[in-house]
Amino acid sequence: QVQLRESGGGLVEAGGSLRLSCVASGHTFANYDVGWFRQPPGKDREFVAAMAWHGGSTYYADPVKGRTTISRDDAKTTVDLQMNDVKPEDAGVYYCNARRKVGAPIASRFGDAIKYGDMSGAWGQGTQVTVSS
Known about the structure:
mainly beta; 7-stranded mixed beta sheet; 4-stranded antiparallel beta sheet; 1 helix
């Protein structure tokens, strides 16, 4: 299992941009599907974005689609989340998640994870994002 550590959180103005980074260590990162989740204050954790192990497939939650990009660099063992036009509802703790590839579609593997209580894989400790309006 990889170990994950997020960074890049902080205070961002509404309408601005944020970039979060997650660095993995311990195992062959290229063998993992990766995703980002967030937990808004007082709410359940929710899916944000995911990318397949090969980098050729991405999936986004509807609230962030069109203004968010997930990317990975297997040489650096990092997965980044770039979010533009940040909104107050984007505030929360952001978590990186990595799941060993099994050939399943990332849309269901990550997109439905919270719905089915699937918290499998490795998780980082989270990074806080605060949005000022």
